[in-house]
Sequence to fold (571 residues):
Amino acid sequence: MADERGRERRPWIAHYPEGIAWEIDVDLTPVHERVLARTKAIPDASALDFLGAKTKYGELGRQIEAMAGALQHRYGVKRGTRVALLLPNTPFYVVAYYAVLRAGGTVVNCNPLYSLPELQHILANSGADVMVTLDIRTVFEKAETLARTGQIKQLIVGHFPRVLPAVKGLLFRLAKRKDLADIRHSPVATKITDFHKLVSLGLSAEAVPVNPESDVAVQQYTGGTTGIPKGAMLSHANVSANIGQLSAWAGHLFEAPSKVAAVLPFFHIFSMTACMNLPLAGGAEVVMLPRFELKAFLALMSRTKANVLIAVPTLVLALAKAGEHAKVALGAVEIVISGGAPLVAELRDRWAKVSSARIAEGYGLTEASPVVCVAALTRESKPGSVGYPIPATDLRFIDVDTGEEVPLGERGEIQVKGPQVMLGYYSDPEATRASFTDGWLRTGDVGYVDEEGYVFIVDRIKDLIISSGFNVYPRVIEEALMSHPAVDEVSVIGVPDEYRGEAPVAFIKLRDSETVSELELRKFLSTQLNRMEMPKEIIFKDSLPKTMIGKLSKKELRVEYQDRVNSDEPA
Fold:
């Protein structure tokens, strides 16, 4: 129970939406047990919709159990065995994910767009030697190389046309045969087993007692501040707790008859939790695409009438740009939950022109399974805020210079406590120690909480620019530039500067058919930014680099700028 002192430093408790409590009993039942229980309770309800091919809850449960049995009896998967998933959003991913957990193993998510060196690092670090993938050539070739060079001993490969509706599957085999890998003639054919064949064996899975609080369910790799992927160990309790916390926050939103649109990739922690675990544990239907294509996504939304959309700002922007086409397709959407990056006010205004659905911004990180804060789903939030800490989640704000907790309203590093916080980084005690202070997870983000409990993110500590001794936050500059009607996207980095030590540089993508000069932008910014915040340079680009889920990525811009400096080219 929170004492009075605790309530004073947790202003959000008094301002929570009606009917939601901060102090809750968090259900730590492993997620695969929760989903399998749902498959027995509502066997005839639709669990998955993949491009029109439906999978009922009962059938999903049967496939999970059969694959779990195969993993145990054919591959020796047991408590703690790491199994890698190299898959886009397909039914293969859903079945494999819960089957690994049911067999007692640990899921190691692999992004199909990762380079071979990145995948090799993840596999070497995790020790996973069994991988589940599919026969789409662009994905399979990476898995094939990993098997050929010995990083992977066994491959379980799904045949993509098999999970499509019958007619689409036939057409895919005929018209897009070149997109499929020739599995039979692969140099690692002896290491390959067909996914469907394993399921059809119908092997029974043996019960595996797990300790929810100490056994690792998911080993999720994150670049962190160093750029070298580290394996965040998320226990069964961590993963399940975040589902319970979000269920308490969302009420019945993720239960039947809701339909949740899943276009963000399941191998990303945000989608894994919000697009898959949360709705399937609640009995909702997950409608999915293997990748985002605007025309296909709008068709999906029109056909399925999905009412819940999990998004990132770049997805919101793409839909807003679609105008009238999006307005019709998004007619059934009730709520959009956006995370992964800041959602600027200008983008909210553009969204309002195509949909009346409320956008609730959230905040989280891989190491917290991932959700930490979410805006209220039943009322508007304060502009610029990421909402409140979710139930059973505690925050404090620490001065980045003194290490002392700052008063209400002042900026500091956000630190988190809660049942969703990771165990640590796999085989990296030094990084684990550096990520915690007195049991609090250090997020690396600077923010503050106001007197009503609303949390605001200012910027990443690693992105902070020290200019002439003053703190300059790139996000402040980015939001100012985004308020200009000609600007479509912007990313600001800090670069070395002889006079100021560091100075901001802004990379900008303009909206289609819009033009604006650097001088005009500087005049526009002069009323919004102080002298230290004014960009040293403004660089116009046709596109800005993004991560797999659509977050703007500064890493590539830093490299590009340094290359320009090294080559003495004008930026």
Summary: The CA atoms of residues 30 and 236 lie 5 Å apart. The chain has 18 helices and 27 strands. The domain at 31-38+47-209 is CATH 3.40.50.980 (Rossmann fold). The chain has a mean pLDDT of 93.
